[in-house]
């Protein structure tokens, strides 16, 4: 009996017609394509894009050169050198993030005790050679100054979950 | 003498009038394919190249895509592999395209709109669609590449296997129409759309459609290309315009098979409203109905491609030899009985 049923099924292409019905239905379905440069998907305030270093409102840089980010970085993309500044405070003399190594895991941001290194929402950037993607300390600070307002808003949005 | 030259010139003009629209159709069939398959995958397909003949009309977005593609292909370098047989390598795409275009000579687009109204039309079609496999075989051989060679072997075995089922399906049409002339085949289907041969020949219609897919190496029978295991099959080594000619041949063959299905099973240029009260006064030229039916069949080609995964090779062979040939043979006997008893309305 089952054999006859199967023969009937395959002879009249019943399963193929089922498949055709599925694709036929999707033909008239709403399309989910996001036409990227014209349209963009919504972004989370936790989006992990290009890095930035932040300053305190008085202009003092936040980073205390604790090297936690360097230690936690799974891709070893961060290089830090430390120096004592004239006023006795501990500061970085060199702080570099190699974006060609970075995997954008966000551990540096998580590990930072003073919220100095952050990942911004910016993901549309490029470099024409690999040196362009080596972010130096001044690059990171300048980028942080540029985006300070947005970063504050994002931190505020994230604070209830911390 | 003058008459002969005149005849020659007129024939050449006719050929141009047939071939140019076919090429345009091929170009836009590629767009239709990408659009329809895109839509079925909940994407929107190409929509960036605007045809700026009518600026500002959003719906025409993407209509310049085939033009952009062909310009791109024309400017690409043609690479001939070091150990390839140069003559065969270059002639293979031509051998694939030529029969695909030559077969159009006997296709009646509308009443009397046919280049060569010969009595052996169906036989000619069968011969032309079979010759197409030589282009693929030669390309596989001349490329001197194992992938191309495997693709060519697969494609040859497949096309030859399905030729038989296809031939039997044509025998059914021949019996029903009582003629090999394509115009007469269409005329013997006169009446309403219920008089067309797709009803009495329904199994042959389905077999012919599926064999047509296999014959043109279309999904789900595209093992000759089989990206996942043999890269691109017979045309791995081809680039630029030589590749484009293979592409043209494949799509020209698709349109050819679709128009053959239209002629043999769907009443060619005949209006589906004929014989239906009131509706039969709607008059549209035959070429319109022909085009509409071909487009309808082509949509099914694309629909199957968007739906089904590729067949395994032994399954393809099993389907061709152990399923289609018995079905067609049985139905030819049934058809013989139907004709013997003059079953109305088709064989009265």
How is this structure best described in words?
Chain A is an alpha+beta fold. Chain A has a domain of 108 residues: Alpha-Beta Plaits. Chain A is built from six helices and five strands; from the N terminus they run H-H-E-H-E-E-H-E-E-H-H. Chain A has a three-stranded antiparallel β-sheet. In chain A, strands 1-4 form a two-stranded antiparallel sheet. The N and C termini of chain A lie far apart (64 Å). Chain B has 348 residues and is mainly alpha-helical. Chain B has two domains: 75 residues, no CATH class; 257 residues, no CATH class. The N and C termini of chain B lie far apart (48 Å). Classes of the chains: A alpha+beta (162), B mainly alpha (348). Chains A and B meet through helix 2 of A and helix 1 and helix 10 of B.
What does the largest sheet of chain A look like? 3 strands, antiparallel
Widest sheet: strand ordering of chain A: 2-3-5
Radius of gyration from the alpha-carbon trace of chain B, in angstroms? 21 Å
Fraction in helix of chain A: 25-40%
Indicate the CATH topology of one domain in chain A. Alpha-Beta Plaits
Number of helices of chain A: 6
- Count of distinct structural domains of chain B: 2
Mean pLDDT figure of chain B: 84
Distance between the termini of chain A: 64 Å
The shape of chain A, in one word, is elongated
Bin the strand percentage of chain A.
5-15%
Q: Roughly how many Å apart are the termini of chain B? A: 48 Å
Which overall shape of chain B is indicated by the principal axes computed on the Cα atoms? globular
In the CATH hierarchy, the architecture of one domain in chain A is 2-Layer Sandwich
Largest sheet of chain B, in brief, is: none
Question: Which structural class best describes the helix and strand composition of chain A?
Answer: alpha+beta
Could you give the count of β-strands of chain B? Answer: 0
Report the total helices of chain B: 11
Helix and strand sequence of chain A: HHEHEEHEEHH
């Amino acid at each position: 009996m089952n054999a006859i049923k199967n023969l009937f099924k395959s002879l009249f292409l019943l399963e193929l017609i089922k498949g055709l019905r599925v694709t036929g239905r999707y033909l008239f379905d709403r399309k989910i394509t996001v036409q990227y440069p014209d349209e963009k998907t919504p972004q989370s305030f936790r989006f992990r894009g290009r890095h930035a270093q932040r300053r305190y409102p008085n202009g003092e840089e936040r980073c205390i050169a604790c090297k936690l980010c360097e230690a936690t970085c799974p891709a070893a993309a961060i290089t830090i050198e430390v120096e004592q500044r004239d006023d006795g405070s501990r500061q970085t003399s060199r702080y570099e993030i190699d974006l060609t190594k970075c995997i954008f895991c966000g551990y540096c941001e998580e590990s930072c005790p003073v919220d100095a290194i952050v990942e911004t929402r910016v993901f549309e950037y490029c470099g024409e050679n690999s040196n362009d993607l080596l972010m130096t300390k001044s690059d990171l600070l300048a980028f942080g100054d540029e985006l300070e307002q947005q970063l504050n808003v994002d931190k505020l949005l994230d604070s209830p979950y911390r | 003498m003058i008459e002969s030259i005149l005849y020659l010139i007129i024939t050449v003009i006719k050929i141009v009038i047939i071939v140019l629209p076919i090429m345009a159709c091929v170009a836009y069939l590629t767009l239709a394919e990408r659009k329809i398959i895109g839509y079925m995958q909940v994407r929107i397909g190409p929509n960036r190249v605007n045809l700026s003949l009518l600026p500002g009309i959003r719906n025409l977005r993407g209509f310049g895509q085939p033009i952009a593609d062909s310009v791109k292909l024309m400017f690409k370098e043609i690479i001939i592999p070091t150990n390839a047989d140069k003559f065969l390598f270059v002639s293979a795409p031509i051998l694939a395209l030529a029969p695909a275009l030559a077969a159009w000579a006997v296709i009646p687009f509308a009443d009397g709109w046919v280049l060569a109204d010969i009595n052996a039309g169906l036989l000619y079609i069968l011969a032309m669609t079979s010759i197409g496999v030589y282009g693929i075989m030669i390309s596989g051989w001349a490329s001197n590449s194992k992938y191309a060679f495997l693709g060519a072997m697969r494609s040859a075995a497949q096309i030859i296997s399905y030729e038989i089922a296809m031939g039997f399906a044509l025998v059914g049409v021949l019996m029903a129409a009582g003629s090999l002339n394509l115009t007469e085949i269409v005329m013997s289907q006169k009446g309403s759309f219920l008089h067309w041969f797709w009803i009495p020949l329904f199994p042959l219609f389905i077999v012919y459609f599926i064999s047509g897919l296999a014959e043109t190496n279309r999904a789900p029978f595209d093992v000759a290309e089989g990206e996942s295991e043999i890269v691109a099959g017979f045309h791995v080594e081809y680039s630029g315009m030589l590749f484009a000619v293979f592409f043209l041949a494949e799509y020209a063959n698709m349109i050819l098979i679709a128009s053959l299905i239209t002629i043999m099973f769907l009443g060619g240029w005949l209006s589906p409203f004929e014989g239906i009260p009131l509706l039969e006064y709607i008059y549209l030229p035959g070429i319109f109905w022909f085009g509409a039916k071909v487009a309808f069949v082509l949509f099914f080609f694309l629909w199957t491609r968007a739906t089904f995964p590729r067949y395994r090779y032994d399954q393809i062979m099993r389907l061709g030899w152990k399923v289609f040939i018995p079905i067609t043979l049985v139905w030819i006997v049934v058809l013989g009985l139907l004709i013997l008893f003059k079953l109305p309305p088709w064989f009265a």
